[in-house]
Amino acid sequence: MFKQLHAGRDETILDPEIPIIDAHHHLFMRPAIRYLFDDYLADVRAGHNIVASVYVEANSFVRPDGPEVFRPLGEIEFANGAGAMGASGVFGNHRICAGIVGYADLRIGAQIGDYLDRALQIAPDRFRGIRQGANHHPNEAPYRFMPSRPPRGLLLDSDFRAGFRHLASRGLSFDAGLFHHQLPELADLADAFPDTTIIIDHCGLAVGMELDADGRKRVFQEWRDAMQKIAVRPNVVCKIGGFGLPFWGFGFDGRADPVGYEDLASVWAPYVMTAIEIFGVNRSMMASDYPIDGRSSGFVPLWNAFKHIVRSATAAEKDALFHGTAARTYRISV
């Protein structure tokens, strides 16, 4: 499943001096894979200049007991410990988990305020926001790769929005996991809460799996149009990454041979460049989505591909894409 996870570490590092804040990664223990602090550190030390990272919830290390509503706080405790390790300097200039995006079910009602306050108490220097996956698709194919099935219309749900309104007053953002056809729902949410920063995870996930060339072209156009419409909301930011996920239909997850950065870049470039053109470099940030994207590429080729795609950008534009936007959005000092 994660056969590309360690591939390509012998590739020459492109632009090794560029500081990178990896805006999206996970740490967890699953039956199929163990990926914890040391595993991520080994990828970081492979050569790219990862100066900090943002931990994003993966339903890991939840508390085994206590009120169910507060059990996800266990993951924030875990990530904060990893963040303290990274901040210690013992592992070099890599502030792993400098920002934390935790999980909460925003539909839980009045208790959400207490939950968010406890999360801020646990990780006052790192807790930055919430992600609650809303990925819903009319076809069954995507669900083969999803651990859960979020309800349809979550972003429009009144109970969800009642919880959502508690984010802005605490300075917290919302990471949105969704598919491209749900972007209009996210736009409606952004309009309803203009003071809350909303981050589109995985570049809006244009679902092209199991489609022919014409079908993929149609999906690209749908995705591009939806991204253009939502980008007019100034409180929405785009996270560029997640291209190793099978939902895109790129097929790299089915390759047995190591995938190099040029192969990745040739397929990812239309999506990366379109997203940057739409949102601009100051509302776009690069992310590895590791280890999940290890299905399709190694950590070194992944970052090489991003650098290769934007090789014609100015130094200032690269600074924004690789660390500036993430530093501002997640309030990380580098």
Automatic annotation (TrEMBL):
It holds the Pfam family Amidohydro_2. GO terms for molecular function: hydrolase activity. It comes from the Bacteria. InterPro entries: Amidohydro-rel, Metal_Hydrolase, Metallo-dep_Lactonases. Residues 21-332 form the Amidohydrolase-related domain. Belongs to the metallo-dependent hydrolases superfamily. This is Amidohydrolase-related domain-containing protein. It comes from Trinickia symbiotica. The lineage of its organism: Bacteria, Pseudomonadati, Pseudomonadota, Betaproteobacteria, Burkholderiales.
